[in-house]
Amino acid sequence: MTTLTEGIYPTESLISEAPGEQSRESVTVKSGQNLKSCAILATIVSGAVASAAKSGGNTGNGTFTLDGTTPLLLGAKLGIYTLRCIAAAANNGTFRLEDPDGVVLGDIVMAAGAGAVAEHIKGVLADGATDFVVGDGFDVTVSAIVEKEVEYNPAGSDGSQIATGILYGAVNAASADARGVAYKRNCEHNADIVVWKSGITATQKAKGTADLKRRGIILR
Length: 220
Fold this sequence. Notes:
This protein has 220 residues and is mostly beta strands.
């Protein structure tokens, strides 16, 4: 006898959502993805971004190099990010990152002449022959932002390792970007019905569940 397996239907995992269209939004699923209804999503951020030494130049001749693959991360804003040296040290230093609204995102302590920046923007600080001094820094201008959805992948390093939503209905974007609808906030879903990446572990599910909770998406 042939065994038939019924697939997941659009919205099947949904328990409750906010009034109107507050919980849902139109999204673009990135080319190369073929996602089932109720799939757990992550968001890949790209766009136009450039880095330059602060106005007036620096005393130190070290560099800040944006990541060549994913220079923008989840949460990136339009405008100018500032990296400023707040503590100088021989062949090192501590830099403070602020977003375009002046919100401090964190301090980057260089070690062995390098420091990784991975909050909204992604790149690497590197020491030069002449040490940085307090006040030296870089301005990173974000002039365009594009967000596309992919399957949540806890082993990723391009933004796919952070769960950000749940797909409404199946979307086949295997050959080109495709439009879809996703739950992005203020909703509850059945944890036994949502679709996780094949092979995901219980620990990885727990991490993705926590990611979603921070966005107001609750799995029960």
